[in-house]
Amino acid sequence: MSYLHDHFLLPNETARTLFHQYAAAEPILDYHCHLPPKDLATNRRFNNLHEAWLEGDHYKWRAMRANGVPEDLVTGDAPPYEKFLAYARTVPRTLRNPLHHWTHLELRRYFGIDRLLDEHSAPRIWAEANEKLATPELTTLGILKKFRVAAVCTTDDPADSLEHHASLAKQNLATRVYPAFRPDKAFLVDQPDAFNTWVEKLEATAGVSCGKLSDFLAALDKRHAFFHDCGGRLSDHGLETVFEGPATEAQAAAIFDAARSGHAANPAQRQTFGFFLLLFLGRLDHSRGWTKQLHLGAIRDNNPRLVRRLGADVGCDSIGDFPHARALSAYLRTLDDEERLPKTILYNVNPADNYVFGSMIGNFQDGTIPGKLQFGSAWWFADQVEGMRWQIDALSNLGLLSRFVGMLTDSRSFLSYPRHEYFRRLLCGILGEDVERGAVPHDLTMLGNLVRDISFRNAHAYFGLDVPGA
Predict the structure, then answer these.
(1) Which of the two ends of the chain, N or C, has the fewest CB atoms closer than 10 A to its terminal CB?
(2) Which domain holds residue 377?
(3) Do residues 110 and 192 both lie within one domain?
(4) pTM
């Protein structure tokens, strides 16, 4: 049997029918990713397979390092082809790692290449892929069209001008591209140099002098409104844990003033300021009908040697083992008690927290919309067959899988869209197994609607994004 054949992850006829007749044709709503807006606005054409595939892919970088590849061939100044060859030599060593699946799905779906990648096949694959990358079909906008991407939400700093989003809006594309509000740097009161540098950027973009806390909040509100005018309907936070309160405005103002004067907040003060600011931002999200995303639990930039050499976000992050339940409950409870809890998606990077997060969302569903609180798709290190299955099982046991908003790309690579196929195949495989053991009814209409909902329709209804033709 061929590798990654048509029935990959589809163990029986029911699963195959669900995928091929219901899931496969659904569009993609990529509501969280890290694609560069500039690459979209300029309809970037990649010069070679390294640019398209390896330029910013931390998963591949980690595998190459683990395989003994020197950093010069990972992120350094080596020629692109030499870096590609280093990855090609690594790929056979990735058996049973999701990279082996992703790599070969991407070669097939983008380039029509069904050979296994290794150092022997690499020269031919490099030449064939580069030839296709030179065509309009595989520019950045061509890729979105090829994979039927209805909308993309990038991840953007509040101090960003959103000039590339403005350019994209003028192009009236079939795929809508929206900003998502990611204010992580607004919490850095324990790092006054970085905080003040960022606040100065915020001042310039917002046109608001941030001499005191109220000005700072006004500047954030102004940028939030600007994102809304640009079509943005989601915010996002990447945190180890939700900050712990309680916190008063007077406490937050004193911490803000100290940070602006160059005095670092201690750990307790950072928690106080963070809780106050996270509540403020949650109220903003609610006031404009947005969805808040909380990505929790990662320990970032573990390797200072690598960070000093390359900067942040270079593939030395890992799963954390933090306690989440009490602080998360307090945060959601405070906003819910005020009747200002926005639609919220909780993502955990540690699968050990699946049942904490899956049960937490049930505490604050309020009947206003289906699935107002979501247990988000398996994230980062859990974004593979086993991790996705665990997330789907936990959500099914504790809540309503039928209201799940489904998969997201969460990638910096334009070659990651087959991950949606990967997820949909697994979902259909799970349902097919359930039918076979008599655990769900053998009703293809009901199951097919469930699959279509999770693949696209739930997300379209939930986020309220303007998606042409959907």
Answers:
(1) N
(2) 140-463
(3) no
(4) 0.97
